[in-house]
Amino acid sequence: MEPRLIDRPEKSRYEVLAGDDATETAGFAEYHLSEGEIAFIHTEIDPRFGGQGLGGLLARGALDDARARGLRVLPYCPFVRGWIAKHPEYADLVPEARRARFGL
């Protein structure tokens, strides 16, 4: 089964589910949501699932959801910040006045 992304607002994180039946938490991206902004704080992929592209799937899915919800993105997490730097089509999610702070 293909990996899937879910938002767990009660845990303030997106999770990527993988494994044979795509029910095992393979990684997560923690966030803080407030006043039209989502601040990504920490991203982690279980080492057992490393090298499968799940971090990218997680970042893309979370950022796509932020865009769909009209949220501004604050990428404090180095992984999310680096992913945006490699995919500049997502840089517009970061408020222009704050991009330099994040090196974007």
TrEMBL record:
It is an enzyme of class 2 (transferase). One of its GO terms (molecular function) is acyltransferase activity. Keywords: Acyltransferase, Transferase. PROSITE patterns: GNAT, GNAT_YJDJ. It comes from Streptomyces roseoviridis. It comes from the Bacteria. This is GNAT family N-acetyltransferase. Its EC number is 2.3.1.-. Residues 1-104, 6-95 form the N-acetyltransferase domain. SUPFAM superfamilies: Acyl-CoA N-acyltransferases (Nat). PANTHER family: BSR4717 PROTEIN, PROTEIN NATD1. Pfam families: Acetyltransf_CG (PF14542).
